[in-house]
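[audit] Reproducing an earlier prediction to check determinism. Same input, same settings, fresh worker. If the tokens differ from the archived copy the diff job will pick it up downstream; this log only records the rerun itself.
[audit] input (555 residues):
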Amino acid sequence: MGNSKTVSTAVRGKIPFKGGFSIWSLGAFCIATFVILPVLAVVYLAFFPTENIWPHLLSTTLPRYFTNTLVLMLSVGILAGATGIGAAWLIVMYKFPGARMLEWLLLLPLAIPAYVGAYALVDFLEYSGPVQTLLRDIFGWATSRDYWFPDIRSRGAAIIVLAGALYPYVYLLTRSAFREQSAAGYDVARALGVGPFARFFRVGLPLARPALAASCAVVMMETVADFGTVEFFAVQTLTTGIFTTWLESNNAGGAAQIAVVVLMLVLLLSGSERISRRKHRYHNSARNSRPVIQTQLSGTHAALALAFCLVPFCVGFLLPVGVISWHSAKNYAFWLDRSLIEALWNTVFTGMSAGLITVTAALFMVYGVRLSGKRLPRLLLPLTTVGYAAPGAVLAVGILIPLAAFDHILADTIVAITGYEPGLLLTGTAVALIFAYSVRFFAIAQGAADSALGRVSPSFPMAARSLGRSDVGVLRDVHAPLIRGSVTTAILLVFVDCAKELPATLLLRPFNFNTLATRVYEQASLENLEQAAPAAMLVILTGLCAVMILARASR
């Protein structure tokens, strides 16, 4: 029996270790450790800081940071949830002029980073912007004392901008949920005399609750993670507190302590969403399931439905693109600026490097977990998604400080052995940035790899192994050709998210190193939107690639 087991292992191509581990399971364990390590580092730094400022934070800034974050998170969640689910209900249940086009246009705000939308809104509505200038020309007002206009740089404006950028998460998931519902429930409700509003609240909304809860949780987590928007609108949140405590107060331990509060809030959101629907089950009867027949709207009702869907599209996409395009076209010389070209190259280099590394590691890990069958790698696999939930500023704290310590140890070792002083080899380069991107977006690559490998029929790898192929040979000759499209898509999606990532890039980039996102932030912070516009336009075009892939996948 022992010999037959060894032969069987050799046929499958696994290299066993003592204790029953293979190279695949060991590799999967190492990858999972690297992905989880930054989060563990944040927790360690928070509870064992060089200078404990918990009492100071609790008595001064932390309550304000937490209150602003909570208000912002709940307000954006409610506004984006109402907008997304309302638009999804109208698109799925009714026919009205422009509905077929709006079905896809409503996804486009996903291509606009929220901080770009913030810069565009302020430029459009500020005192020297076109709106107030037009009002002064029409009514003859001379100065701002002659009329009242709402404060643009405020928490309310931040809520509107974030909701306009994030509602497509709710729209996309709830639209799919409404489409999958059977028409039978609505027919029964209609036969009982239930009106359209009551059908929405008593039939459609309860059945779409899982999709609504999940998407609203994502919206609120993205709100907690945002930095560019809230910083531009001068709203002090937990994320801005990390920057202030670390960069201005030079206290890494205090930044880690605030980061732990952010991490706990994000994990609480994610956990509460799962617990809230743990005892609920939502099933459709396949036997009698049939799609909902859309109701034709006309007159006032059609106009109201069209207006409801147009408003979020205009706020989330049309306004930012219009303002950025206008500034981009005013001075074409800014497109030839050397610093813009360098920022573009840095974005492509770091984003594509992170995409290739992340997808390769995710593919290795998922394939290794499937082959090993060990319990520990399978338990670690879901934990690797925590990086996507953790804001970029949190990961930056967990990466930079341990990496800098390791860098000093490495440099001291090289000096002791060779006498050569190499300087900082990792933290002074883009390595830390690429590592942060890989951890932050590992969940995207892992989900794509797991889905792609799951679609390959088990008979193909079994046939290859029966012909003597090793596990590496099966992955290279069987799986790779079949999942090439999914892998390419995953690399592109990771690249797009890297191009838009701002907090981690600001904290981890080397000196005098700009990406498109940081160039937009720096120029807009200096009130120089004309120079920021070309970089912002490139970020938008990059984001549109991801939206096109998403739209194609959701057909």
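[audit] rerun output stored. Observation attached for the diff report: Residues 338-372 form the longest helix (35 residues).
[audit] end
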